[in-house]
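Exercise 3.2. Students should predict the tertiary structure of the chain below and write it as structure tokens, then compare their answer with the key that follows.

Predict this chain's 3D structure.
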Amino acid sequence: MARQATRSLIGAGRGLATMGIWTGVYAPVWLPILIVLLLLMRRAVRPPRVPQSNAGS
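Answer key:
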């Protein structure tokens, strides 16, 4: 039983390592796209600025 749990843990670790390697390899492709999308979403969600008048000064 403990042997099977250890094997499962090792298999999960290998899967995470593989995912990390693929993420790192493709980062130059998806990272700039992600940054542009985040900036566009941030700009779309932000409410427009209302100019303040200096009538009271």
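Discussion points: The radius of gyration is 24 Å. The mean pLDDT is 90.
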